[in-house]
């Protein structure tokens, strides 16, 4: 890989996630200023959708920070950032519905969610140890160590790839539930889709960068063994 190609490559892997983050923040900020027509808070939306689906054993709690919303399947808790928990914006409504999408996946034992959960231990090891193993193998000219690092990185990349259908499915469920429950109306459906699509872009960007890095190290390993 010549210097110009290398510079272009590093520019891409820096620009892609930065663009995705800028997109989600600008979209979120725009629609967090627009109230939904029903006046329901994010907490109320989350509770209503769960009750509509016969789910009563999951708590909804506020959490500090912006875009810190998540579902914790271990404690059966949906945590919404305070603005989304207490607020009535289209953005907050969309985010709350997305997190409840994960709750419904959990209740239905959604296959990709189950697979992602099973990959957590190896993915955690891969994301923490891979780069050290790979660099160690390169410095020591020990291709076997580098290969172990590549397999560790591949496990982390697989986790990110499996995350994509989990997130897309949660967003699709969110839109279906928002419409069927009457939480959003008319133009709000289009606005909610924009919020959810922008959020999904961050996962796509992360997975793309991870795949590019994995491919780069695989090529380096091949070149090391050809020398």
Automatic annotation (TrEMBL):
Pfam families: Zn_peptidase_2 (PF04298). It comes from the Bacteria. The chain crosses the membrane at residues 6-22, 119-139, 145-166, 200-224. InterPro entries: Zn_peptidase_2. The keyword Chloroplast does not apply. The keyword Mitochondrion does not apply. Keywords: Membrane, Transmembrane, Transmembrane helix. This is Zn-dependent protease.
């Amino acid at each position: 890989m010549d210097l110009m190609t290398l510079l272009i490559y590093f520019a891409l892997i820096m620009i892609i996630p930065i663009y995705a983050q800028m997109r989600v923040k600008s979209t979120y900020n725009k629609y967090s200023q627009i109230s939904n027509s029903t006046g329901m808070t994010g907490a109320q939306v989350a509770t209503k959708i769960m009750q509509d689906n016969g789910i009563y054993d999951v708590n909804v709690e506020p959490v500090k920070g912006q875009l810190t919303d998540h579902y914790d399947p271990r404690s059966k808790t949906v945590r919404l950032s305070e603005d989304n928990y207490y607020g009535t914006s289209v953005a907050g409504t969309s985010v709350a519905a997305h997190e409840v999408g994960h709750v419904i996946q959990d209740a239905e034992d959604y296959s990709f969610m189950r697979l992602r959960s099973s990959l957590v231990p190896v993915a955690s090891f891969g994301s923490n140890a891979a780069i050290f193993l790979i660099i160690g193998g390169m410095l020591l000219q020990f291709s076997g160590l580098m290969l172990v690092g590549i397999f560790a990185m591949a496990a982390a990349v697989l986790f990110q790839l499996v995350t994509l259908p989990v997130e897309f499915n949660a967003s699709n469920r969110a839109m279906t539930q928002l419409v069927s429950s009457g939480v959003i109306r008319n133009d709000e459906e289009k606005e909610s889709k924009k919020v959810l699509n922008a959020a999904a872009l961050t996962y796509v960007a992360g997975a793309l960068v991870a795949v590019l890095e994995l491919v780069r190290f695989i090529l380096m390993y091949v070149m090391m063994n050809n020398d």
